[in-house]
Write a structure and sequence with these properties.
The protein is of the alpha/beta class and 125 residues long. It has helices at residues 12-24, 35-44, 62-71, 107-117; strands spanning 4-8, 28-32, 48-53, 80-84, 97-102. A 5-stranded parallel beta sheet has the order 2-1-3-4-5. Strand 1 (4-8), helix 1 and strand 2 (28-32) form a beta-alpha-beta unit. Helix 2 runs parallel beside helix 3 (62-71).
Amino acid sequence: MKKSIMIIDDSEDTRELFTAALEAEGFKVISAKSGEEALDILEGTHDISLMLLDLSMPGMNGVQFLEEMQRRKLGGDIPVMVVSASDNIRAVQGPNIIDSLKKPFFYPELIFKIREQHGVHPNGH
């Protein structure tokens, strides 16, 4: 089964750019414009192999999303890569956080981190 990468970012442009780059590499993408929407998706979807999480979002920010995900016991062991322009990106802690990438960045760097450093591939292997 082809697993998905979930993008959680309030910027429509960012979601579209991430989706285009990841789909070009063969990944299936699910996107959420808020932490609340991502939680709703996690309630019913269990084929996510990685989450790319922005920290600065209106309403529920990225840190609050991680806390709520843990509180509700959603997402289990889905790894999370924090992808944000926030200066305190490396200070974010959580059992699922595997990496961080500060915006702006080059898309090949994102693809390298996903495939090579974290072993997430489009076919789920």
